[in-house]
Specification:
heterodimer, A: 10-stranded mixed β-sheet, 9-stranded mixed β-sheet, 19 strands, globular, B: alpha/beta, 9 helices, about 30% strand
Chain lengths: ~325, ~240
């Protein structure tokens, strides 16, 4: 296996980050909090007032403790950059997040595996959102074209009274490989949870999504949304589960899977459950092909069929 | 420019288009007037190649070349485009993106101009998706703006006035005339004589066949007097 020096690793990560559509200047700015991790080595760790990022190297990855102090509102998004440049390897991120009461932060995570042929990327997150705290988490992946990667993000999120958790997981550039996404969120009184997953499966990609929301407090609200597009022989199984266990809790499961071609396979399993007579949970699940009229509309403006499908897919996954 | 000769379409054993002949000259706005069910949208689909429609007889010539088996993209690349009666809505595709891909290399300023031409304020619409959040009328006007942006050689406009309110209709008609001024020929498919008023010639469609072609005023009057009161829709022999 080729080893990289720390400088090479950092440069390689920044290059890959740019190729994945990231803005290099963000990672160079002194005013932006960031964490850059290659394999199990921390290449950059810049906190900011009111935000503490502690890391500990492990044999398989990094343990991260991410604390937003009580009442802190961080103006600029915090950037996390995880990745692996070699073709083979394992990266395991053990993340503990504590967004204390009345704090507010937006986190943008970039997971970059441009050369992956036999790579495993695991994230195990234990997340606590305090009372009236707001945490917005966007995770975008960029994989190479070989598809030899396994991504296993798992998170357990507790949202305190009046708190807000919003997360978007997007994997639409490069091959997915194998994805096993598993997030569960517990919402206390008047807390809000929004989970969004977007993925574009091609080749023999294998996608498994499990989004679970437990509405445990009075007036809690939750939405589990997924947008999946499949081509070639890709397959996906999406489970969206929402449990309305508290008075006046409101939940919604929204799953849309589009299949392009005859060999891809999409499965949607929405589960909605209510144990309180004032709670309400709804769901909609749709599996279908890419709308022919949409394709022809764009073709009538001069796009080839593949270009038209691409524009539609990018729109759905935007 | 466009010559349709003895065009026929049978679907599930039913004759939808029955030996239709039509000429649209370069620089012409040609109106097609017809009642519901006479085959107006089918003609649009056959000329554009959409909805998998291919003629079961006859020819569609564009600049002398038979395009009846061409794909939609091939026809668009020849300079033909279609504005649908009910345009598709595409989640995640902004008005800006849609007009940009229609305009190919048009500048941001030019793109905004196309929206203004159909009476829409760019600041209000450019970053909105062309999805279900737009009203029917808004979506129709954006469709017209996208056709303007494309500068087609032949624009087929299928019921451009449906869903358009009385205030926006003059803007839409101005848009059609502007398109024509910029060099596009227009095939204007409608059931409204108000719309065909901007045409150079008008044809009347009945049972998938052109039964009369002439000047807009006279032809529209004939349509009003005969077709709107006709108890034999799609029976041209009456």
């Amino acid at each position: 296996m080729i080893r990289y020096s720390v400088e090479e690793e950092y440069k390689g990560m920044i290059d890959a980050y740019q190729k994945a559509g990231g803005d290099e200047s963000v990672l160079k700015s002194k005013d932006t909090a960031k964490l850059v991790v290659h394999e199990n080595r921390v290449l950059a760790n810049d906190g900011i007032k009111g935000l503490k990022i502690d890391t500990e190297q492990t044999a398989r990855g990094v343990r991260v403790s991410f604390t937003v102090e009580k009442g802190t509102k961080i103006d600029r998004p915090v950037h996390l950059c995880f990745g692996l440049l070699p073709k083979e390897g394992l990266q395991e991120i053990l993340m503990k997040v504590d967004a204390q009461d009345n704090s507010e932060v937006s986190v943008v995570a970039h997971c970059i595996f441009p050369n992956a042929v036999k790579v495993i990327h695991k994230m195990d997150a234990d997340i606590n959102i305090g009372a009236n705290a707001k945490f917005d988490y966007k995770e975008t992946h960029y994989h190479g074209e070989s598809g030899g990667i396994e991504v296993i993000p798992k998170a357990r999120v507790r949202v305190g009274k009046g708190g807000v958790w919003q997360s978007t997981f997007a994997l639409s550039r490069g091959m997915v490989g194998k994805l096993d996404y598993d997030f569960e969120v517990y919402c206390q009184e008047k807390a809000v949870a929004e989970l969004v997953v977007k993925a574009y499966g091609r080749g023999s990609d294998d996608i498994k999504i499990l989004e679970k929301i437990y509405l445990e407090g009075k007036g809690a609200r939750g939405m589990a949304k997924s947008r999946i597009v499949l081509s070639d022989k890709a397959k996906a199984e999406v489970r969206g589960e929402t449990y309305g266990n508290a008075p006046y809790s409101r939940g919604h499961v929204d799953c849309m899977e589009l299949v392009n071609g005859t060999e891809a396979v999409a499965v949607a399993i929405p589960i909605v459950s209510v144990t309180n007579d004032t709670a309400k949970v709804t769901h909609e699940a749709a599996i279908g092909s890419i709308d022919r009229k949409q394709v022809e509309t764009l073709m009538a403006r001069g796009l080839d069929e593949n270009e038209a499908v691409d524009v539609i897919v990018r729109g759905i996954l935007k | 420019m466009l010559v349709v000769e003895n065009l026929q379409l049978k679907l599930n054993g039913n004759s939808i288009i029955n030996g239709l002949d039509l000429h649209v000259d370069k620089g012409e706005i040609h109106g097609i007037l017809g009642e519901n069910g006479t085959g107006k949208t089918t003609i649009a689909n056959l000329i554009m190649g959409t909805n998998s429609y291919r003629p079961t007889g006859g020819r569609i010539l564009f600049d002398g070349e038979d395009i009846s088996q061409f794909s939609v993209s091939q026809r668009a690349k020849k300079g033909i485009t279609l504005a649908w009666q009910e345009p598709a809505r595409v989640e995640g595709l902004t008005v800006r993106d849609y007009l940009s891909l229609s305009a190919k290399n048009g500048s941001a300023g030019q793109i905004e101009q196309y929206l203004l031409m159909v009476g829409m304020e760019p600041a209000q619409y450019m970053d909105r998706d062309i999805d279900a959040t737009l009203s029917g009328g808004e979506r129709k006007r954006i469709e017209m703006a996208s056709v303007l942006a494309m500068h087609p050689r032949l624009a087929i406009l299928d019921e451009p006035d449906s869903g358009i309110d009385i205030v926006a209709l003059p803007l839409l008609l101005n848009g059609i005339m502007e398109m024509n001024k910029q060099g596009s020929s227009v095939l204007l498919i409608t059931h409204s004589e108000r719309v065909t008023a901007v045409a150079h010639r008008v044809s009347i469609l009945c049972a998938g066949k052109i039964i009369s072609t002439g000047a807009p005023l006279e032809t529209s009057q004939w349509f009003k007097n005969n077709c709107l009161t006709c108890p034999h829709i799609n029976e041209p022999t009456h």
